[in-house]
Every structure is written in C-alpha cells, then in structure tokens.
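== Sequence and structure of one protein ==
=== Format: two labelled lines per protein ===
==== Data for this protein ====
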Amino acid sequence: MPYGPWDEYFIHQLPRPIDHVNDTEKSWSDRCYFNAHSADGTVLLVTGYGNNPNTQSAHGYAKVSLADGRHWDLDSVRKCTTDRGDLFAGPLRWTCIEPLKRWKLDLGPNDSNIEWELHYESRAPMWELLPITIRKNGRVIVDMFHIKQPARYTGWVSVEGERISVDGFTGGRDRTFGVRASEEVDFWLWFEAVFEDRAIEAWVWESSDGTVQYVDGGFTFDDGSLSKRFVTFQHDVTFDGDRKRPLHADVVFVDEDGETFRVTAHARHQNVNANYGAGLSRRQMNDGLSYYKWNSTDPIDLDELESNLLAIDQLMEFELAGMTGHGIFEILIRGEHYERYPNWGPPPRRTPTAS
C-alpha cells in the first residue's frame, strides 16, 4: 500500500500507511449512508459511499423512489488507493462540512435523469452502537463499528427535469467501518423511526434459526440527551402477500432498566422503498457508471428485482405511545436465510405476464 497525502496527517492507527487496514478480508470497508424522506411519505432518497482498501476500490450509489411506483437506481465505481479522504464516485460526491453536524451531498448531471443537492443537518446526538462481531463456521464475518444520527434536510432533487424541494425532509445517516460480509449474514432488522422530538435507532442480528446474535439501540433526543440502551428487540413482520416488501410490523423493545416500548410500523405507501442486490439486467453502463429506471407496480420488474434481493429499506409510518413518526425499516436476509420469514427464501415460481 503506498504512502499518500492523508499520511501527512497524524492520525495513524497502525504502523503502516493509512491505506493499510487491520484485516485482509475483502469486505473491509469505510462507509457512509444517508436517507431523506418527505413528510407525506411519498418520496424517498437514499445514497451511500464506501471505500474498500483491500480491493483498492470505491463504490457510490443513489436511489430515488416515488409513491406511484417509479424508481431510479444509480451506481458508480472507481479505483481508490491514496485518495480515500476524497469521497466521490462518478457524478456523486459526499462532503463533511462540520463533523458530527453537517454534510453536503451532490449528484451532478448524468444520463440517469436524476440529480440533487442535499444539505444534511443533524437534529439530535448520534447513537453510538456497541461494536458488532459475529462468527460463522469458524470465521469472523462481521467486525465493525457503527453510528446512527437523525437529521433534517434542505436542498432539491431533480427527477427527469422536474425539480422537487427537499426542505423539511427528515431522515438520517450512518457511518460504518470494518468487516461486513453481508452476503453471509443470515438476518438483520434495522430501523430508524424519526418522531417530533426524538428518534429510535435500533438493530438486531439473528442466525437463520432465530438465535439472537446482537442487539443495540435506543432513543436519541433533540434536546441532546440519550436513553438507556435496548437489550431485547422482538419483532413480528407481515409482508405484502408473497413479496419481500414489509407491510406491517409489531416491535417490542426492553431497555437496561426493564422498561418496555411497543412500536408498530406500517407501509402507508408500499412502493416507497430502496432495494439492494443485483438489480435489473437492463441496466445501462458507461465508464464506471450504471443505472436503470424501473417500476414496482410492474410485476415483471418486481419479480426480477426480488429474485436476488439482499436487503430492502421500506419507508414506514411508526406509532409509539400516541406519537407518530416516519423512517426506514430495513430487512436483510441472505446467508442460510431465515426460518421465521419464508418470503425471503428462494423466490416463488411465477407465471410470466405479458408486458
């Protein structure tokens, strides 16, 4: 690994250049993720970026989802060696304006017909999750650090020439660094519910038979305070027929003091979600950039997308003790699958429908 510009800063953690990390696992990455959604739940924007030092690559993505079923997905990759501190991939750029407080997210002109300029400002302290380590078949598949933080957004997004203001959108961000071999993880359920004066940030990981491997989470309040940690995370998810999209969920948390919190989640707009996986085969590719537009009301599009789905971020409405909020309800199932939710097993056979 070469010595680069960032090695001039006195921030080393190993007796090696900054580009050298502590593990040779290919999945070792340094990532950021942002989501922003409208108050009425009809628009969802998701973007993320990651450096993978052991493959000397960087990957960025952007997703737009509308309640009428239209989706735009864009991915960009580049070689990344000594410039890990410069967060860009193709037309996408992520800029930290003020640490722990403000970011600027740019998606410049490109052939996908989506562009944006988003300004993130935190509204509460970050939730610093306990370190996550999971072994499977004698090997560490997860060894990472993760934070979550709710936010308000300003700016705009342009969809096929129509500019939409995002002023007043809420959402959040996360940061992750370390090993995360997602394809080998059996199950996780993560969600972020943003209410008027607080947000829930919570995560549970389980093996295929339902054995709990990790739980953490709690409330982060706009007044700067944090709650006790959750120590149990029970969930019962109902799906949209035989689809992989969650429709409704009942969740129960218990914190360190034994206090119980009951949360319900419902997808008021079932088509508003972000999907992760192989995507659609009709994607267009050009100089490291790939993109495609699809419609989740089209069963052919949805069949192909769900056939190799890794995870989904469903925009949900949350209810807690008389309060109503909105946010992301994320399910990932891969590895040995997950016995409780057979919708995420091998895809069902379907009769092709004429387009």
Notes: The first strand starts at residue 29 and ends at 37. The chain has a mean pLDDT of 94. The CA atoms of residues 37 and 44 lie 5 Å apart.
